[in-house]
Design a protein that fits this description.
Strand content: 25-35%
Number of domains: 2
Radius of gyration: 19 Å
Helix content: 10-25%
CATH superfamily of the largest domain: Pseudouridine synthase I, catalytic domain, C-terminal subdomain
Number of helices: 6
Order of helices and strands: EHEEHEEEHEEEHHEH
Shape: globular
Number of strands: 10
């Protein structure tokens, strides 16, 4: 018996999120079903993070204990053979017996995609938010800088447990543009519930002149309220989780 680290990619469009729910398609439920066909007898696999309904992933991390007498490549292939087309195991590796994909994580990286165009584009809108009006690049850059560092993000999300801290450290926040496509990359030690989609919505409001960039800094210090709203789930992808080296874990 060994503990395996499983790195997943999925199109979240038809799933009610990553976490298992009763009588609802979720990523966890699909992966547990595939593991069960290979002899897994656990009650619940572990996930690095919880993604909302409609959110995608390129590097979600799961952990499961399994008695598997074959190679890691064969385990990956066996899982993919029974998973639906919108979920794929990218790779599998042996982890320490106490490895926990959520609690051992050092940082998490999310990417949000949007594009500016007044007319619908069905081929892009599955994976990006269509914003009808242009954005001010300088305002976006200033807004991203304001988010960087350790702050109380209570105005931008909900703590995973009632009464727990809403302070998070954002290590990187930046916008990249190509033609009318915009990409927001953000890396932090952890995220509040819906924090990325909320920060994107507020930054877009600032870049359209509907909100002063200074209001973002003020909200991080608890001195100003922000307008309600979330960026759509379709534009968000959970990209990567980083962990300490094996020596550091030991």
């Amino acid at each position: 018996m060994a503990r395996y680290q499983i790195i997943l990619a999925y199109d979240g469009t038809r799933f009610a999120g990553s976490q298992r729910q009763l009588n609802t398609p979720t990523v966890q439920r699909e992966l547990e079903g595939s593991l069960s066909k290979l002899g897994w007898q656990g009650r619940s696999l572990l996930l690095a993070g919880r993604t909302d309904s409609g959110v995608h992933a390129a590097g979600q991390v799961a952990a499961a204990d399994l008695d598997w007498p074959h190679t890691l490549e064969e385990l990956r292939n066996a899982l993919n053979a029974s998973l639906p087309p919108d979920i794929a195991v990218q790779r599998v590796q042996i982890a320490g017996a106490e490895f926990h994909p959520r609690f051992d994580a050092v940082s998490r990286w999310y990417r949000y995609r949007l594009f500016c165009q007044p007319v619908r584009d069905p081929l892009r809108e599955r994976y990006a938010w269509r914003v009808p009006h242009p954005l001010d690049p300088a305002a976006l850059a200033a807004a991203a800088r304001a988010l960087t560092g350790r702050h109380d993000f209570a105005a931008f999300g909900t703590a995973p447990r009632k009464g727990s801290s809403t302070q998070r450290t954002v290590m990187q926040a930046r916008w990249l543009a190509q033609d009318d496509d915009w990409c927001f990359d953000v890396r932090a030690d952890a995220f509040l519930y819906r924090m990325v989609r909320r920060t994107v919505y507020i930054q877009v409001a600032a870049a359209q002149g509907r909100l002063d960039v200074e209001a973002i800094s003020a909200a991080l210090h608890g001195s100003e309220s922000l307008p309600a709203g979330l960026a759509p789930a379709c534009g968000l992808t959970f990209m990567e989780v980083t962990y300490p080296s094996l020596d550091e874990l030991a």
